[in-house]
Amino acid sequence: MRRLLEHERRDRIARLAALREDEGSASDDITGVQRTSVRRVIEEIDAALERLDAGEYGTCPRCGEPIPAERLEILPYARHCVRCRQRSR
Description:
By secondary structure, this protein is an all-alpha fold. It is built from 4 helices and no strands.
């Protein structure tokens, strides 16, 4: 899982660099929103790596249940199980 998270992180950092190159274009507002979104995902990935190091990765902090492997395959930095995530919305 660490490799997948690190791969996701590298991809997002590359995306952020590409967005920085686009600064000054006609779509600055959109680019700014995209940069903010990518930074937020990088923060989530970093938090997931910290949970992995702490032995807490894959466990929902709200209900204490394991996060299904299928969810982690799709969203490896998921913090909560689907049920708890839906409740927080």
